[in-house]
Amino acid sequence: MNERIAICDVIEAKSGRVLLVPWGDVNTLNGDRMVINEESAANVLGAFKAHGVKMVIDAEHASEGGEFARPDGLAPAMGWVKEMEAVRGEGIYGNVEWTPTGQRLVMAKEYQYLSPVIVYRQKDGVALRMRSAGLTNQPAIPRMP
């Protein structure tokens, strides 16, 4: 399958409903272009439900490994996405439960953005699934609400 992975952004300061990715054409500073529409929403929510587990929120995409890996090889959770929902015209939201460490980092404003890792079809940019999300201070989506 011809897929690309995009790393995107946004955050909320407390546990609860958080915008993961906005609706419509999403162009990142990394050069990724994807579209979040009805098909994307169905794909992402369907994949999340089929997997049947919470989606991890780590720090700086450590769970992605490779260039994001920590020297100690660990990728501790900063929070968990327990549920997802799509709102047409707004985006895909997650119901987030922060760990004590994640909540401390967010509340202290040591991290201000949440960056979901989205797998999408390269030919048309339609999102297929969301693998994880990372706390980051380098947002890739300009003017994220």
Describe the structure.
- With 145 residues, the protein is of the alpha+beta class.
- Helices cover 15% and strands 42% of the residues.
- The strands form two sheets. It has a seven-stranded mixed beta sheet. A two-stranded antiparallel sheet has the order 3-4.
- About 6% of the residues have low confidence.
Q: Please give the largest β-sheet.
A: 7 strands, mixed
Shape: globular
Structural class: alpha+beta
Overall pLDDT confidence:
88
Tags for this entry?
single chain; 145 residues; alpha+beta; seven-stranded mixed β-sheet; two-stranded antiparallel ribbon; 2 helices; 9 strands; globular
Helix/strand layout:
Layout: E1 3-7, E2 16-22, E3 24-27, E4 33-36, H1 38-51, E5 55-59, E6 79-87, E7 91-98, H2 100-107, E8 113-121, E9 127-136
Parallel strand pairs: 5-9
Antiparallel strand pairs: 1-8, 2-7, 3-4, 5-6, 6-7, 8-9
